[in-house]
Amino acid sequence: MSEPTDYEARLQAFVGRELVARRPGPDPVNVPMIRHWVEAMEDGNPIYLDDEAARATGRDGVVAPASMMQAWTMRGYAASVRPDTAPAGPSASDDLTGLLAEGGYTSVVATDSDFEFVRELVPGDHVSVEERVESISPEKKTGLGTGRFISTVKTYRDASGEVVATQRWRILRFRPAEKPAPKPARPRPAINPDNAFWFEAAREHRLVVQRCADCKSLRHPPGPACPQCGSFQWDTARSSGDGHVYTFTVNHHPRHPAFDYPLVVAVIELAEGTRLIANMTGVAPADVEVGMPVALDWLDDGDLSLPIFRPKES
Fold this sequence. Notes:
alpha+beta, 6-stranded antiparallel sheet, 5-stranded antiparallel sheet, CATH 2.40.50.840, single chain, Thiol Ester Dehydrase, Chain A, 33% strand
């Protein structure tokens, strides 16, 4: 077994050490706070607010919900933000947090809490808490990132020092996993009344070609009038998606982060006779050839769908 590193030894030196010295809660157990708690939790058990109902169960009177144990020792919002209420000098907890940050474990998430209750709390009880480090795990890989599980034991006592509950508390301190930046969306086309139909069909993965309603000639890109006969009447024909590479270019620069480079931009001549500009997929740029038979595919980018073409299987 290899010797622990200096950092590991410094970290493990915290095991068994007191993190939080015994500290009393700001207020004794009281019925108004119990009332707020049970209303927020929608807990209708009458033993928390009704003395008679509590005595009917053999208790001397109302008791606090066990789940409130930790709440009685919380310092409150003001104490957490006002510098004049902070303890003088760094605490052992601050020292451990600093050492973990030194190792890059700067993020934290609570993983589990296990309570053992010795007795119920009643109004007038004044609860204190103290905390010790139980264990610090070796470095582990998790879905959140590489980190260490820190297990501590919190001991809750009443005013006489008797233990009323213990809580095993575990957190994960971790180095956030580096996430690749999301790929930006492709630049959006300028959609107008003349071409909106084409993009709407593309969203349904239909490749259509504008067709003159009078002379039946096909045209692309779309336009308001037929260049052959001048008619303003038109409908569409659905393309089979078959075609061939009429010409192409391979783009290297300038680069846009929404695209993968080198980028093949091809003029595709469809079987129906019209041409359109589209990207190629499923082929190395060096293997693209003029005349190469292609078949239709689709690229979906959010609310935008565009036809792309891949080599047609022979």
